[in-house]
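REVIEWER CHECKLIST
Item 1: Sequence provided? yes
Item 2: Single chain? yes
Item 3: Sequence as submitted:
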Amino acid sequence: MDEIGGHRADSAPHLRAGDRVLVTGAGSGIGEGIARVLAQRGWRVAVNDVRPEAAGAVAAAVGGVAVVGDVGSDAAGVVDRAAVELGGLDALVSNAGIHRRAPLAEVHADQLDDVYRVNLRAVVLGARAALAHFGDRGGLIVNTSSIAAVTPQMGVGLYTATKAGVSAFTAQAAVEWGHRGVRVNAVAPGMVRTAMAEAVYADETLHERRRAMVPSGRIGTPEDIGRVVAFLLSDDAAYVNGQTIVVDGGLTHVLIDQLPHPPAAP
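Item 4: Structure as written out by the authors:
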């Protein structure tokens, strides 16, 4: 067997249809889109959500199992229950996230704590719990960051900082756990049409203004994010580790063009 840099060249986990994955925050929105895509591609999916009816509905739709629980207070417990329901665990997609909108100068300590617990602390503790369930083949972790990690948004409290933390944790975990056959990556969604954002996109004027900003010419869907997650969980990404993949239709590359500029010279 070839050796590269002291490591086995085939040390990345080789996944098979029917492998077992937990997707947190999958009762709606981006998490639901991820769960649907993975199920379509042969994964056995545990659908986590804090809302029992949401977790149950998506689990039924994708032929998976529902794992109800709040990762903000018991991330390890959610991972452990998913492993029991699936008969093991091969991958974790830490997607659950929340907003507590407030200017930094006014945000309350309890709002900071809420966002930190769900958006960052749960990602770390969930990943650590997943390690215990990954076998000798290793395992896979994909975290949901955001373009907010590098393009801060005003008035969202700790959200931006926690998403930057997710990307930083992703890189560190990849470095520390790579020798164990564990790959850790992240996706950073841009504008995605979900039920949470529907109030914006139901307004035709706002929708069109936002769509016009995206080089790809459209607002993203949860399934767009799911397909990138599926890639990161596949053997096609066997040499991708510690990366945060931006999935935004090119939006972050044109933000500077939104600044006022003098008229272009003839």
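Item 5: Key structural point noted by reviewer: The two ends are 63 Å apart (CA to CA).
Item 6: Recommendation: ____
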